[in-house]
């Protein structure tokens, strides 16, 4: 699910940076480069948690299988016709593109928010890896409702994993990216193996048997909400909202020869966000039939979704290795990416120490199981916060000229702070977050309205500010 690995790997393979200029024609790459990257990146540690969490929501077979199919297709369309389209048009990084629109000071605030959210996501992945490392030590696993660390062993393991990951990320990205490329096929193979073994353990011999695992759905587990088709459809569409409609992957597709490279995201999405999620859900379905899980359910509690034990019970030591690698290959580049975001705020700071600080924040977050156990909610919030910023770029590109506003206004007027962007984001975020909290509306339901609202408000505010500035200039 992390965009970091893809972005930095593309930059590394291109053997250049071009942070503040267009990528030259000689450095552009074909669609095959993006196919491999997306296929590997989206079969990650998050998938081991998301699959089981879907099962805890009492979702039906149709709502899950068809909802994921269509929701992920909408995500692919968003990458292809928004992100890749604009990325190949201008060939700027997200941050340079935003700087031209927002101004340097406003982009600093975005970098800070982006870096912190990446740290929290990396923390969830450290939690995932810890559930695998803790198995040989007979560690008590975090429960679905756990928020705080549940023991001394847990704290030690998380701190050790976080320290190792942070040091590797701080050393540089080249080795990390190469190692992750080698690990990705192992992780994908593990997901497939988990799915096959689970089908055997569940005595599935036909399509109807498979369908009946979810059937017509059930009541959600304690502490969870009931998911319908629309919950699954919208959540899977916006699971990577920050990357596609939020435009983070501009930094990736600026290296693509053609916008058609956006279709390659389907490889990662349907391997990682379809096959892997369903395979991980099957692991949890097997566990739910055990006497231990039945006893927990009978007591009115929700059985844990710790990935390590689930994978170990299915495919043994290979499962432990797969969960450890899946969490590691996601957390490592995510911490690295968070370090880059923080360094953009303090350019003179050492990238090594900034990344170590990012790793420390991620490790502290990893101590708290809630980030992983509530991953569906966190990912929805993450996309909701960052996606509207992408609407600024999209609406300026597609509608700015027709609406009569000047593109890249902050750059052309040497502005450090474009209030049109700030007010558009604050109003759209504030209004729809209030609706979500006040009326208990699922956050993914309001992500698209907030995104559209932010884009429209940006056009309106920009028109007013630019005309106002133009009028004042004409009076001088």
Automatic annotation (TrEMBL):
The chain crosses the membrane at residues 115-139, 151-170, 182-207, 227-246, 267-287, 310-331, 352-372, 378-399, 419-435, 441-461. It comes from the Bacteria. GO terms for molecular function: cytosine transmembrane transporter activity. The keyword Transmembrane applies. Keywords: Membrane, Transmembrane, Transmembrane helix. One of its GO terms (cellular component) is plasma membrane. This is Purine-cytosine permease.
